[in-house]
Amino acid sequence: MGSDVIHGGASIDAVVDTDRYPLDDPADPVRIRTIARARAELRAEGATVLRDVVRPELRGRLRAEGDSVAPRAHTAVAQVNVYNTDPDPTLPPDHPARVALTRRNAFVARDRIPAGHLIQGLYDHPGIRALVAACFELPDVHPLADPYAGLTLNVVAPGDHHPWHFDTNEIAVSLLTRAPEAGGSFEYCPGIRAPGAENPAGVRAVLDGARGPVRTLELRPGDLQLFRGRYALHRVTPVEGPSARHTAILAYSDRPGVVGSPARTRQLFGRVDPAHLGTTSVRSDTLLD
To answer: Is residue 187 part of a domain?
Structure first.
């Protein structure tokens, strides 16, 4: 597995620092220590960062590939809430779902990212999936069957931001490919909700400015972030300076065949594929989306 060639003709060893992150030997002591640390941090803080997964000499290529597809992003200013649900006037006036937020970021769908790009090869590689699954304490993770949302590039332009929200998928993996000159910080509130415990009062407090639950992760190009985004309210603060912030989002599920709903797909990408038609969200919990 360690010498596999990924999309774009590069070997996985040439892209990933496999001395620090062995991919082909589950018994490697370095791998065991890495997984143990990641599990502890995910349990305690709902997030962990695997530093310098991508070798330094490949980060320029990652950035250039992101720059080349960023103009293909679906860009729309939208009024949303933290759950990305439709307005519900039956909810109490102080419910966080009644708070309108402006979303000003954009997504490049997977079908608009060339097959030869490094992030396509990383997303599909069985060694990366096995490492992610082990860190999340799962027997396996599956790439989404969704032709758009499985792998995306999140583009936050200068002056824009990604407001507070929850993820719909339980397993969030991201790779910063372009860092802005300033701003664009990743902030999150670990475990602010849980299956069976929506905690609207806690969520509303953060929307009203409470900083007690808020944590900040320092992310750098080449780092792989693992995150329980379904249970942590999170956002990207406004990007400052002349350059955009680009993040590859590698979406996995603990079950195969997952496809996004037509409504959510159209909201993010401005279009739907036949694969989305007739689908409904199937959740392992009863939380608001």
So the answer is: yes
Domain residues for the domain of 93 are 12-276
Give Cα 26 to chain centroid, integer Å: 25
Residue 162 belongs to a domain with what CATH number?
2.60.120.620
287, part of any domain? no
Distance of CA 58 to the CA centre of its chain: 21
Determine the Cα–Cα distance for residues 71 and 94; give it in Å rounded to an integer.
38
Task: Pick 222 or 3 by higher pLDDT.
Answer: 222
SS3 label, residue 7: coil
Q: How far apart are alpha carbons 55 and 12 in whole angstroms?
A: 10
Query: Hey, which residues does 197 pair with through a beta bridge?
Result: 194
- Comparing 7 with 101, which gets the higher pLDDT? 101
Q: What is the pTM of this model?
A: 0.92
- pLDDT over 60 (residue 282): no
Helix (H, G, I), strand (E, B) or coil at 147: coil
Report d(CA 11, CA 23) in Å as an integer.
12
